Backbone:
């Protein structure tokens, strides 16, 4: 059944027994480890939104592959401009509530296009296998962990020349499949997945043939290990503090393949080094368009929190500098979202059927919004005030001797109780003065390729010669 | 015949004898006055692009009103998302060649929507008159001069309380029409038009009833006068210098209505003050979306010129700071254009049939790109070098005794002759160090409403309450 | 003895028994509580730098009040331009190592000037008392906790009209002193001090007379309570992670005065409401000049860390975008520091002998650098890479089964071991992706008055009329 | 007599008969050519300010070389920190009135330091000659034209390999002097000078020995030619329009040396290629510090004009966006000026006695302010309004039939007549929408080295290693 509820999702995890480590210790049950609670909770929320009657119409779509409903954000291969525009709206909406929309369908869609290309170029038959894999995901409702980024090692050397090779590679070919070793970094939500998908992350040369590998395996395949860095939220339960990060956001894992066997039907690329460059390019079109919408959502969340702080502080939007900063954030969000839609409007269909947004607009819009986050965090500090880094803790508030002092001292707007003000300032703290702040910066600046990759894409694709020629014509040269 | 050639356009002007002044003197023949040559030339180019076989397919469209082809940019009422997206591309293309695309259809479209609303609200019958007027324009191929901005006088007082009233207003109602007096500012290309259209520029109150007036009259209607400020280009003929402004860009006129009679069939609004606010709002959606594309075109032109200068200077894009500045300009252009398309993708149809782009995205994108122009002009100076303000003049180059010295001294890249380099640097000079620079800044910063109007629109339309509520939910308040 | 060593400082704390709370619990021994260890350590480091033979020449100065050496940053009243310039250098140096230079002498200096003014205006004799207090501090080497910011409550009402008054105020006058109640916020390092000094934070009106109060009391005076928010560093001991915040940075406290008696000789202002405005103004001159240097130091630290990450990642400064970002940070640091020195060069001596830097330059420079921090943090993410939010934890590294995998996977530049790279990335994490990040933003954006206060000061003091008059003369008006 | 009045200066020009061309034609009398009137007028104003009793105390100083008063900005070799700070104030003041302070003493001072170094390094005796030359200038009050920038030709080749050599070089050595040929670009005010000084503009290699030449000759030396590009102001006389550029700002000339003989006593460098690098470096310290103050003055002028426009438009500083933009400009001016003073405060004395400001602060401050000009020009457009590019011309205003219409239509604030408003808007036009705008951009972006040169200086001089080492220590590496 394609659309699992959150609870069904948790249940489905119990069939798997992956080798996962958190803070140096082996995790027994992924679904109940305290340091994985935000991860599981985040993924559950994603399942519920596609399943629950109130939101299903928006978040689910009938898959042309299976004829069954699937979650748009997680498992649908985007095939029309409409798909792209709808997904942009959903992404903004979810990331404006819990930072990450879990848009794994982006990765599955770009991989779809690359694998199609491989078969076209090499006469191989990977694509039907991949279609079967996608059907399996859509029918089972399983979640994937995405392994794209290799460690890269010494950057002055190609993968094949590394003194200590760590990038994922084929180490043995067998009749019924391949054996791979190596590491993929930045596996967001990793331990919460059922399947691990790995693909190449950059252009490769002929000598790097064995690094040209794409595959999928169940998360508890022997030899597969994940070292998960706890999500940014607090490890201890809280009520008033960290209202967002105590509930949502996932771990980030290092995924280790130590001689992992991949059966033939889950091998989607093996040696076609010349096609490896396609994946990062399609990724640059599709996932960065999506990220424009994602960052718009973050901006919505930051500005909504700022406006609420301004009210709780008793100022509201009356001071022109507060109104201006909030308007400036609105405009940044809308510019990014405008580019998400505009890249969709200027996109085109890939031969495989995937609809690819325009890369230049997507990368330009993303470069703009990601350069603003630091400024927006500063605005949130500015509007919320110094208290977000100096206020008493939840434990102080819960001490009945201290509470009356705090209650009097931090009362501000008559429209909010002191406790409400503290709750609101704690949300600002969570966003702008916590480990979550770092994660938000990391997501924005480095995820989906760092800012310089945006510049490279635009520089390569923009038709500069035609502009130079117009200048020549006007100048009469 | 709807699509005039440029020459037919010039011919058509000879039927009219408007009262036009330039530098304090009455102009006899508009079509041959030396200080109006760039204006007429600019408008001719617009006519030719819709008529000539090579470009007609892009620039002309069959009007649903007349069944004949009309110029998309000048006279087509935009009715579909496709219209909006196509026009954005055309606007960028033309403004990337000669700064101004002459998109008078924007004004006609927003007025169409407002007049429709007036009839809906008041049971009046202006709309059929306006449709007839548009048909007349489309069938005759006539150009309009657009009068929207009133002088406003003492800003602390409403129009009706001005000690020296200058805003356009009804001064007499007659059986067969009305008599109006007042002034409209910023009439771009004014003397090159056949018809003058005037509409209100802001929200009005009940006491300002007589200022709620919309109308069209032939340009040579008695009592109508235009004082035209010469276009920014040189007044004397040149070959090498000012390659853009010596050929294109129009005058800006002050249009004076001194008891001008408007026959009933050309009165489109008369007293419906409550609907006046609609026009600036529709304008804010539609024309600012268009201006995102227009500013993208300017950016294309500036960066193309910068890249050409870099080559002529013998550096090309090798120095990373040059490449970075040019890439930065590309990204700004694409962000603005992405918002033009995105506002189209998020737009919706007005009851009158006009397709209105999304106002929030359009205003956000425009605010971004207009804030960049000063920086881009600085980049062009930086890349072109100090010579654009210190190089010898065309006359020096034409002096055979001086030319050899200049020729040696200013030779740079072996791929360009010194004369070619001078021509290229003169284009940079024209864009970044001339009166045209000022016009470009004026067009960008103040035309279509100043930057603060973008902020006001976004601030009003963005759904802040929903964002505050999400923050409340997360904070648990 | 004026210059205590760090150990002597700790010893000196044992004489006091303040009422301090951390995470809701009463602290027994301030000097050995685990959540106060960074606070005590930070203050110790400040004592040691003024005392140790290697650095004493820079950090200590002979006090003209006592003839003995005192710490420049902590206890010296700045009296010459030289004092200002030297202190700017020291501040940059220390804040470039451990974020906060502990420049309590700034607060003592501005208070010196205000108290002098009170006596001049009112014929009172507070100033000699204050001089005695400063001598006591200098002779004992005691640290102060600074209470300036009142909670302000409902911002639409003055202190005297608050429904729940919380600002510090006189509640009783006795023959031998006064009794005060109320709260001061943002008491940095509070529990590590020996004396608490409180002063007004804003202009007051005649009805707010009882809020015009300045005083000093020992930290363990009955009725004085501090609720300390733990410093941003980790609560558990670490080796590799959080290398800065696990050692330095202080708690932030809310300081409660619950009917605290202040003996007459420690009352420095009592009712002179008209002089209260002086303190924030002198503070705006002096402390913001100092903060320009402080923020320059933070920028030095961020860029030094970024450059080290670039090396450990095997890229160094070769990629032009890395070099550009680091250079951009250098220039921001130097612009701020240039303004710190420039404000000193343009400063003047107050009648009390305190040397006041120029307020316009100080506020302008500070506004600039504080607007850059968010951008610089983004640069650090960009250069350090996504690993700072996804890398394995210290506990994973210490697991001997996991270490080999991590060691191979995260090896990069051959010039650094993987452990070294992890240590370096953990410093980047500490600065840009941790609770310390939030504290850094809080220190930069809100401490010493929020950005809008910079604008207000400049707007008030800049001689706009003279500039308008020059424009008039040129325009011939 | 060292301090000439403006009239005496004009008289002094009549002794010289330089070969000057303007718009391709040979100029007969420099002092009365209509296209040189702004140049002469600008220089006259500089003479008058040092001579007139009201301003002499500020603008003149007793030269230690001659014991007579000389103009600080034009001819004084700066020798103390006080000299630097005073000159920064004067520069800001004058450039805030007429854009350019004519700070030729900067060039003379940096040359002083380089020539001193040459003698130290090579045992030559140029320095005493140069001192004599400076005395001659100070005693005669003569003006210099400064030739530093060579044309550079094909940038991929050194001077000695150019196919068409144009850089200044020695072409013959004679017993009593040298003969030089080549060109210097960007000679501001050139035709208004009495002496031409030429120096190298960049680091040279051993093969470029003959390009290592420094010299001074009278402007009418045979073989010396100047091609002067007219100053940006109008060529025809005006009353209301272009109020600044019609009176001030100078031509920019190309200075041609066609086998010019330089007698031995005016040769200051001849072949010492290893010292050529010093001049641009000293220039980078000293002239860029000065330019920080200069750009602060421009900003003062722009914001003063903006504030006056806001009043004449009837809005004043009430709208928060106007107030904010003006405050932002104030802060930019003060930040630049703060760096001018700060670079002075951090400067040091060169062995030759010249006081050199700190290069890092000067270059950082300059990079900041020059990046703001485009934004400030946009602000001026924004605040002044669209009229600055659309208003009627002076000739229209002078037409008695048109004036009443204009008078009514453009009346705004009751505190200004329409004519006053027009005068004020014409000043804004002059600054932000005219050829002067281009000159202002050119002066700001490219004069004194383009922005990338600021980055290079800072990158080279900033002590990055010490910052990296601090990061290492903290990280424990």
Residues:
């Amino acid at each position: 059944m394609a659309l699992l509820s959150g609870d069904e999702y948790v249940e489905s995890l119990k069939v798997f027994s992956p080798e996962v480590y958190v803070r140096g210790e082996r995790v027994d049950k992924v679904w109940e480890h305290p340091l994985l609670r935000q991860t599981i909770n985040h993924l559950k929320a994603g399942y519920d939104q596609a399943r629950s009657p109130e939101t299903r119409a928006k978040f689910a779509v009938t898959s042309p592959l299976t004829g069954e409903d699937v979650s748009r954000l997680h498992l649908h291969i985007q095939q029309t401009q409409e798909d792209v525009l709808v997904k942009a709206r959903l992404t903004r909406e979810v990331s404006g509530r819990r930072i990450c929309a879990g848009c794994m369908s982006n990765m599955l869609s770009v991989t779809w296009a690359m694998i199609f290309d491989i078969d076209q170029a090499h006469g191989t038959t990977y694509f039907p296998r991949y279609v079967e894999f996608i059907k399996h995901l859509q029918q089972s409702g399983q979640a994937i962990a995405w392994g794209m980024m290799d460690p890269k090692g010494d950057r002055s050397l190609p993968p094949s020349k590394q003194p200590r090779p760590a990038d994922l590679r084929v180490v043995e070919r067998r009749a019924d499949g391949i054996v791979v070793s190596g590491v993929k970094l930045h596996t967001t939500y990793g331990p919460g997945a059922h399947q691990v998908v790995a693909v190449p992350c950059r252009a490769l040369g002929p000598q790097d043939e064995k690094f040209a590998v794409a595959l999928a395996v169940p998360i508890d395949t022997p030899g597969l290990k994940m070292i998960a860095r706890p999500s940014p939220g607090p490890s201890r339960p809280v009520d008033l503090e960290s209202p967002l990060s105590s509930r949502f956001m996932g771990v980030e894992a290092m995924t280790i393949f130590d001689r992992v066997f991949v059966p033939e039907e889950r091998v989607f690329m093996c040696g076609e080094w010349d096609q490896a460059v396609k994946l990062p390019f399609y990724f640059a079109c599709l996932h960065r368009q999506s990220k424009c919408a994602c960052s718009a959502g973050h901006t919505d969340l930051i500005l909504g929190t700022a406006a609420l702080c301004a009210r709780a502080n008793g100022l509201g939007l009356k001071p022109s500098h507060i109104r201006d900063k909030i308007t400036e954030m609105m405009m940044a969000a809308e510019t990014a979202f405008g580019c998400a839609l505009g890249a969709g409007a200027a996109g085109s269909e890939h031969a495989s059927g995937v609809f690819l947004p325009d890369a230049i607009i997507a990368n330009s819009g993303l470069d703009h919004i990601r350069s603003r986050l630091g400024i927006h965090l500063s605005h949130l500090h500015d509007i919320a005030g110094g208290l977000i880094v100096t206020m008493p803790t939840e434990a102080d508030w819960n001490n009945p001797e201290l509470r009356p002092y705090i209650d009097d001292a931090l009362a501000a707007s008559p429209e909010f109780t002191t406790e409400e003000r503290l709750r609101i300032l704690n949300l600002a703290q969570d966003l702008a003065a916590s480990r979550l702040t770092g994660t938000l910066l990391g997501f924005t600046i480095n995820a989906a390729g760092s800012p310089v990759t945006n510049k490279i894409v635009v520089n390569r694709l923009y038709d500069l010669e035609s502009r130079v020629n117009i200048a020549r014509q006007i100048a009469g040269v």
